């Protein structure tokens, strides 16, 4: 039995009176690469936020690494070990320079300064962004921001990645880089995307979230 | 936090012409603020409760606002009774709490809450667009109205950006401790907030210009002055003035 990373049991969520998720049951195990598709407003980002503990479900239980998560304290470990890539890279980056943004994650994990310096150097090499390290985040193009955002998440070496529309707005070259990265450096992930050709290259099966219900969609 | 949470509704006050509401509010706020004692502010407080009742607002949201505002009023209670020098007083060990001081603090609390409730019931029940447009009708200088409107807009923008940055920081396992990393992070959050809010505001302004914004606010459903609006305005206005005059001659 593969180790359970995420387990959602009967999760329901509504924004005020607008019901978005109804009785969702979902499990993601170690080594699984899963895609999630669905119409706009289906609640895909909401699901990711519930997994990370930013939203509290109206009913149901959230199990991460086999342990039930209820309060803020429970989710600290979740946020350290699951890497969430936001849909909007602008929402992810906030430090003055790229270098500091990449360092932020490892520093939170308690690594000391010298270790962090090494991590930043290695990541910059891997993503080919050494020339961007000293640049202020606000002077990057959208594609560059996306790669930097991914680098900041990768710097924490998460067990599982949660990616919200990672390929949106990217040019072909950057998309190729992203696909290469997901194929070779990521073992477990849940990718939300509208781009089914992208998902074909990066995940093994796809689920569909529609009208508050999740269902199996396709195998590759 | 949705800043215009009270503006959606269909009570009498929601449909009332915003020009009347602004005029009534100004009369209420000024006369309530300068009234003295406990009795007259209490009458104004009851009047503001009447406004709240006919506005049929969400109780939980209302309570949140009141608790937030009264938090500041709490400070008045700490300072005024202790520093208001007069007789008679009660002794608490080495502290002298004057009776007059307590009365004064109570008067301020009642007046503040009355004005807050009146603001919510009269002004929050219209959208910011309607209020800005009504101000223009009442011949307020258009530059002032534009500043007021944009100020309100930018508060929403700053709040939105704050929520996003908070999520970004938490998503990477940030836990506040007493170390340099934490303080640095807080500094980064403040600077990111300033820069991002500024950039977002610029974008919003460009979007407004791109759709032909010339400095005035057209309304989708223009308000009409009905006979009942006028009757309400004059009626309540007279009540407010009457309460004040009664207070003067008591």
Give the gist of this structure:
The complex is a heterodimer of chains A (220) and B (250). Helix content of chain A is 37%, strand content 29%.
Task: Give the SSE layout.
The complex is a heterodimer of chains A (220) and B (250).
Chain A: E1 4-15, E2 18-29, E3 33-37, H1 44-52, E4 59-64, E5 67-68, H2 72-81, E6 82-85, H3 89-92, H4 98-108, H5 113-127, H6 142-154, E7 160-164, H7 172-184, E8 189-192, H8 196-202, E9 205-210, E10 213-219
Parallel strand pairs in A: 3-8, 3-9, 6-7, 7-8
Antiparallel strand pairs in A: 1-2, 1-4, 4-5, 9-10
Chain B: H1 12-15, H2 18-34, H3 39-55, H4 59-83, E1 89-92, E2 95-98, H5 99-123, H6 128-137, H7 142-171, H8 180-210, H9 227-249
Antiparallel strand pairs in B: 1-2
Helix pairs in contact in B: 2-5, 2-9, 3-5, 3-9, 4-5, 6-7, 7-8
Annotation keywords:
heterodimer; A: 220 residues; alpha/beta; six-stranded mixed beta sheet; globular; B: 250 residues; mainly alpha; two-stranded antiparallel ribbon; 73% helix; flat
Verbal overview:
The complex is a heterodimer of chains A (220) and B (250). Chain A has 220 residues and is an alpha/beta fold. Helix content of chain A is 37%, strand content 29%. Chain A has a 6-stranded mixed sheet, sandwiched between helices. A 4-stranded antiparallel sheet of chain A has the order 2-1-4-5, with helices on one face. In chain A, a hairpin with a 2-residue loop joins strand 9 and strand 10. Chain A is globular. Helix content of chain B is 73%, strand content 3%. Chain B has a two-stranded antiparallel sheet with strand order 1-2. With 250 residues, chain B is mainly alpha-helical. Classes of the chains: A alpha/beta (220), B mainly alpha (250). Chains A and B meet through helix 2, helix 3 and helix 4 of A and helix 7 and helix 8 of B.
């Amino acid at each position: 039995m593969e180790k359970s990373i995420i387990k959602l049991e009967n999760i329901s969520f509504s924004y005020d009176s607008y019901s978005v998720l109804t009785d969702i049951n979902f499990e993601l195990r170690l080594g699984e690469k899963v895609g999630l598709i669905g119409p706009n407003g289906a609640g895909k980002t909401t699901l990711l936020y519930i997994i990370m503990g930013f939203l509290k479900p109206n009913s149901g239980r959230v199990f991460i690494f086999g342990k039930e998560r209820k309060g803020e304290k429970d989710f600290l470990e979740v946020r350290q070990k699951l890497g969430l890539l936001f849909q909007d890279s602008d929402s992810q980056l906030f430090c003055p320079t790229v270098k500091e943004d990449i360092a932020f994650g490892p520093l939170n994990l308690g690594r000391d300064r010298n270790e962090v310096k090494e991590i930043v150097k290695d990541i910059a090499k891997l993503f080919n962004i050494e020339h961007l390290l000293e640049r202020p985040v606000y002077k990057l193009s959208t594609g560059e921001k996306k790669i930097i955002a991914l680098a900041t998440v990768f710097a924490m070496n998460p067990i599982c990645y949660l990616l919200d529309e990672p390929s949106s707005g990217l040019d072909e070259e950057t998309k190729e880089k992203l696909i290469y990265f997901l194929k070779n450096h990521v073992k477990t992930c849940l990718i939300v995307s509208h781009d089914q050709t992208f998902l074909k290259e990066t995940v093994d099966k796809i689920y569909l979230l529609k009208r508050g219900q999740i269902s199996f969609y396709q195998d590759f | 936090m949705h800043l215009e949470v009270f503006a959606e509704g269909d009570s009498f006050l929601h449909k009332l012409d915003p020009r009347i509401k602004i005029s009534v509010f100004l009369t209420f706020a000024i006369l309530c603020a300068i009234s003295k004692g406990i009795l007259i502010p209490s009458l104004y407080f009851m009047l503001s409760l009447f406004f709240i009742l006919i506005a049929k607002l969400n109780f939980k949201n209302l309570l949140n606002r009141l608790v937030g505002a009264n938090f500041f009023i709490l400070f008045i209670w700490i300072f005024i009774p202790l520093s208001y020098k007069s007789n008679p007083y009660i002794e608490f060990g080495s502290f002298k709490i004057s009776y007059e001081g307590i009365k004064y603090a109570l008067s301020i609390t009642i007046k503040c809450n009355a004005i807050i409730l009146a603001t919510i019931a009269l002004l929050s029940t219209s959208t910011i667009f309607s209020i800005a447009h009504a101000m223009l009708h009442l011949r307020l200088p258009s530059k002032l109205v534009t500043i007021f409107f944009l100020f309100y807009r930018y508060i929403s923008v700053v709040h939105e950006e704050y929520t996003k940055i908070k999520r970004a920081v938490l998503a990477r396992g940030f836990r506040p401790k007493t170390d340099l990393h934490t303080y640095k992070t807080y500094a980064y959050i403040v600077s990111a907030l300033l820069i991002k809010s500024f950039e977002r505001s610029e974008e919003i302004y460009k979007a407004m210009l791109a759709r032909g914004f010339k400095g005035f606010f057209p309304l989708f459903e223009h308000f009409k002055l009905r006979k009942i609006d006028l009757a309400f305005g004059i009626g309540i206005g007279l009540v407010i003035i009457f309460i004040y005059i009664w207070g003067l001659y008591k």
